[in-house]
Design a protein that fits this description.
8 helices; Rossmann fold; 18% strand
Length: 224
């Protein structure tokens, strides 16, 4: 029932998150046990924020911090931040969500809370997503979850997943669900956690290869 209500609220918000991804974010936020906050890097108009906040409210109500400079406007001429705030209020989660209108590297300078769930969906270049991970990773509690959106479609994000998530001893149980890659922070991955990450990497590469084949086919079909 709570999942269905979150789905209805998020459906009213413009964004790039599909239903499967939204349900995953809801579940991850609901699973937070209150050992830290939930932080989202890159919120746009708030579609993923609504999913996350609704999931948190159905669990231990961990506070949600939405970090985004909101420097752009939409096709309608309205600033994304204005629309974000309206969407958060319409979803009834404004008391749980704290917007931080700064770039990631600015926000981390004054953020002093532990993080239990970190969702990175900001700059999708290799350098940008790597910077977000390195800046915010130290704040994540042991056993906390770090997730990355658009990890299959964007080459820079995919490269970082291979280098710093699937191939890293500081993460365990890494896997890819649709376009979201997620993993659990550990001091050192044990054999089972490392094996699950290897299986996750295999699945990730299959998805990446299928996407490249579809893109190549689309290019041929549209070639004049």
């Amino acid at each position: 029932m709570q999942m269905k209500l979150a789905e209805q609220k998020a459906a009213r918000v413009e964004g790039f998150l599909n239903l499967r991804e939204g349900r995953l974010l809801f579940a991850l936020a609901r699973a937070a046990r209150g050992r830290g906050a939930i932080v989202e890097i890159g919120s746009h108009r708030g579609k993923s924020t609504v999913w996350i906040a609704c999931g948190s409210l159905s669990g231990r109500a961990a506070p949600v911090y939405a970090v985004d400079p909101w420097e752009r406007t939409g096709p309608d001429g309205r600033r994304h931040q204005e629309v974000f705030l309206e969407n958060i209020r319409a979803a009834g989660v404004e008391k749980l969500v704290t917007p931080i209108a700064m770039r990631s590297e600015q926000a981390i300078a004054s953020f002093d809370q532990p993080i239990e769930f970190l969702f990175i969906d900001g700059d999708h270049s290799y350098e940008g997503v790597r910077l977000d991970l390195e800046l915010w990773y130290p704040k994540v509690v042991m056993g906390g979850i770090v997730a990355f959106h658009d990890s299959v479609q964007f080459p820079g994000v995919a490269q970082l997943m291979r280098e710093a998530v699937f191939g890293s001893a500081r993460f365990a149980n890494a896997r890819c669900s649709h376009s979201i890659t997620l993993a659990r922070k550990v001091e050192h991955a044990n054999p089972i956690g490392a094996l699950r990450s290897r299986l996750g990497a295999w699945s990730f590469e299959r998805k990446h290869a299928r996407l490249r084949r579809r893109q190549a086919l689309g290019h041929r079909l549209h070639k004049p």
